[in-house]
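The aim of this short unit is practical: by the end, you should be able to scan a pair of folded records and say something sensible about each. We start with the first protein, listed as its amino acid sequence and then its structure tokens.
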Amino acid sequence: MHAIVVPRRRSNPPPFLLAIAAARLQGETITVEAEQLVVELFQAEGRSLVRLARLFVDDRDAAEDIVQEAFLRLARHAGRIDALDRAPAYLRSIVLNLARDHNRRGLVSLRHHATAGREVDVGDDTADQLVRSEESDRVLQAVRRLPGRQRDCITLRYFEEYPIDRIAITLGVSVNSVKTHLQRGMAALDRSLSDS
């Protein structure tokens, strides 16, 4: 029987810890080390992942939901994490895929409709400041219209400031592919922003 790692705060455990417990009950072998990795990733990467998702979706609540779902998916399969150093890249790729799915399907819940326009009272992180600026919003909308890989590469490189090799690991593509998508994406942005 594995012990559940409890986060430092003494409140209800985050949903991903409950997902780990449920996966164990269903026969998944999840080590204490893998569970601890998920907790550490949540503490270290949670905010930056929300910021990343926020660049893809218009709504802070939707971005938070996407990140929570990414952690739930990672937690359910924590026993399958074989390369601990690749777990952050795997988690970022889950967030990117969920954000893409969200936009593709137009998945906006009633709760998200109810909070539309609430961006003014969210925290002062960089992504929220970026979205509030009219000129930045025009650039962000142009980035969102790019084809998937170009958009992902541009977002990770210029908004999250990832080096090219880290982008390649996150997206599971070659360094040359990242460079090609960056070049094509920048050319497309240049055309799009020049026309408007």
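Turning to the second protein, read its sequence before its tokens, just as you did above.
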Amino acid sequence: MNIPQARIINRQFAEELLSDSIKKDFTLIFDPKKHQLRIEDNQEWLAKIYLPWTINWSEGAGLADNSDSHFSLALIRAGQAVTGYFHQGVLMDHKVFRAYMVRQKQGKSQIKHLKTKGKSRAGSRIRLAETNQFFEEINERLTSYADQYPIDFWGISCAKTMWPFYFSSAIAPPFSPKSNNLIEVPFHISQASFEELKTSGELVQKFHLIFSEKGKTVMPSFGGEEQESMNNENW
């Protein structure tokens, strides 16, 4: 599990890369929707750095530890989901949800089935009811986090086909699709399990670096294979 085309680097490497970019008059652009720094030269991106969710960025202070970080993850797949609350990078609470919303023979969710066959049959109605309850229970748990903790980031992994149903749930999530602190998890989740929740929580606390082809050329000391091998973290 990793961000496509990205490699994990340590903080020292990230700070050296940013310092070198400033010396070369490259532009640093922060994207809060991805919690990502983009290094550009004449509006052409050279590198992207996904920042740990336990670290903040500002033009004045640069990278700074968040000594009291709070974030939550919601990994949602058809029929199974898991939510988690992290304080200072430590998983403090989690819950797994399951629902009967996948048609056994066709292997597709009731949501996808609604677009073609409708919901007239009893089995379809049961799956639809389970789907509604599924999203309500997820949002109820996330709302409990919002009520108790000052959440810095909400992370979500959910197929876009489910978004209209998820965000129109009778119990709304404690964020909207346009919230600045809602981040779509940038790596693939195969199963919404406790194990993948723990792994995802570890991954969002690391620096991830992607170079463009031009970036590898203009910053060879940071983009070469030898440097990558030296700075990759084996998590």
